[in-house]
Specification:
The chain is mainly α. The chain has one domain: ATPase, nucleotide binding domain (Nucleotidyltransferase, domain 5, 2-Layer Sandwich). The chain has a three-stranded mixed β-sheet with strand order 3-4-5. A two-stranded antiparallel ribbon has the order 1-2. Helix 2 packs antiparallel against helix 4, helix 3 packs across helix 4 and helix 4 packs across helix 5. The protein is globular and about 60 Å long. The two termini are 18 Å apart.
């Protein structure tokens, strides 16, 4: 089944809020912060990742509540694959943030295969968008231009806009899109051979997790 159809079918429209069936970045970061007590703040995760040994190939597969698109494996569980004696908390923090980029590429490739349209740029929002390190990695691993707006709290702005639009206070969406400007753009910098080698390792890690529930 096409990935877009699966995503739409995975949305529960019942109150109190929408619930997309997809892997989200927050659980993997929250696990390190709140459950393990390994990281004090989200900003600390970025600082740790910047200190990590880039030669380590450590992969966090965040199947804490299963894996969503494009794997659709609700019984999958999280795994940390590639640990060596040289790995420490910085490498684990880096693997946690890198998982966001790998899962983004998984989705982009699935949607590209469905639509036949390549993604040249991606607009981001949400709390994790403030992480320069993570945004640069996403740009590198896709590869694509990542555009971050001045305000990353797009969900709150969107809710306010819809309420105002219903009252006739705001213009149509097309008018807002014309005025949208990025606060920063992140361009790919990683060599192509390194990008593909890292992503191939991610796919092997995911395959290993899926084998345990097949």
């Amino acid at each position: 089944m096409r990935v877009v159809e699966r995503l739409l079918r995975g949305i529960d429209l019942s109150p109190p809020r929408y619930r997309p069936l997809r892997a989200r970045p927050e659980p993997r970061r929250s696990c390190a912060r709140h459950r393990l007590g390994a990281i004090g703040t989200a900003a600390e995760a970025e600082r740790l990742a910047a200190r990590a040994d880039p030669q380590q190939r450590l992969y966090l597969v965040p199947g804490f509540a299963g894996l969503g698109a494009p794997y659709w494996a609700p019984r999958a569980r999280g795994a940390l694959i590639g640990l060596t004696a040289e790995c420490g908390l910085p490498e684990i923090a880096r693997a946690t943030l890198e998982a966001v980029g790998y899962q983004t590429r998984d989705l982009v490739e699935a949607m590209t295969a469905d639509s036949g349209v390549a993604v040249a740029s991606l607009r981001v929002d949400g709390g994790m968008a403030v992480s320069d390190w993570t945004m640069q990695f996403i740009a590198d691993i896709l590869p694509a231009i990542i555009e971050r707006p001045n305000s990353v709290e797009t969900t709150a702005w969107g809710a306010a806009y819809i309420a105002g639009l219903a009252r006739g206070l705001y213009p149509e969406p097309e008018a807002l899109l014309e005025k949208w400007q990025p606060e920063r753009r992140f361009a790919p910098q990683m060599p192509a051979n390194e990008r593909e080698e890292r992503y191939a390792g991610w796919r092997r890690a995911v395959a290993g997790v899926l084998e345990t529930v097949s």
